[in-house]
Write a structure and sequence with these properties.
The chain is mainly beta. The strands form three sheets. Strands 2-5-1-7-9-11-13 form a seven-stranded mixed sheet. The chain has a seven-stranded mixed sheet with strand order 6-8-10-12-16-14-15, with no helix packed on it. A two-stranded antiparallel ribbon has the order 3-4. The protein is flat, with a radius of gyration of 19 Å.
Length: about 200
């Protein structure tokens, strides 16, 4: 199902989800039938909220856009086909998986697990406090960490190269390479990046 998912930090005591479901088709009737056959399901417990789009009926141009606000320390998992995933300011674990869409994560302070096929990944860490794993097929990865981040960096590129700027690594900065292993500021959580 097409459409973006955006997650931002909100109040410390609540999760809010806003979803807009829309459909396009050759006729208004077919679009209306597609909307009527599709729904957004939610499962809520005191410590977990799960929201999913369920497509009904025939194939067609169904799209859903989600805007979600969560407490800063929340664990966030999101997946999308044909849509961009965005999250900002979250200090809990973030998992993002996209097919035919990009992933944009900013201001994160927890562990990260992000994978994209046919889309790029952009991650800007506010702090590196846990494992960061980024994997991309047919796209590019951009990762930004604070200069004082303590981490163990392990980067591999099958198609394309790696460009390092602004970090003091054991490899020469600014040149294109295919693999890089380095300890940043004495080492810390693993940062693993794979581009194929």
């Amino acid at each position: 199902i097409n459409g973006p998912i955006e997650v931002d930090v909100g109040r410390a005591d609540s999760v809010e989800v806003a979803a807009v479901l829309s459909a396009t088709s050759l006729t208004d009737k077919r679009a209306t039938d597609l909307l009527n056959a599709s729904k957004i399901e939610e499962h809520v417990t005191p410590d977990h909220v799960r929201v999913a789009t369920v497509r009904g009926g025939e194939s067609g141009g169904l799209q859903v856009s989600y805007k979600v606000t969560v407490p800063a320390a929340s664990r966030v998992e999101m997946t999308s086909n044909n849509g961009t995933l965005r999250a900002g300011g979250v200090s809990g674990h973030v998992k993002a998986v996209a097919v035919n869409g990009g992933i944009e994560l900013a201001g994160l302070g927890g562990s990260v697990d992000a994978a994209s096929v046919n889309g790029s990944i952009s991650v800007k860490m506010a702090a590196v406090t846990g494992r960061v794993r980024l994997e991309c097929t047919n796209g590019r990865i951009e990762l930004e960490v604070p200069k004082d981040a303590k981490a163990t960096l392990n980067v591999r590129a099958i198609n394309g190269g790696i460009t390092v700027t602004g970090l003091t690594t054991q490899e020469a900065a600014g040149r294109r390479i295919r693999s890089l292993e380095s300890v940043l500021n004495g080492g810390g959580p693993e940062i693993e990046v794979r581009v194929t």
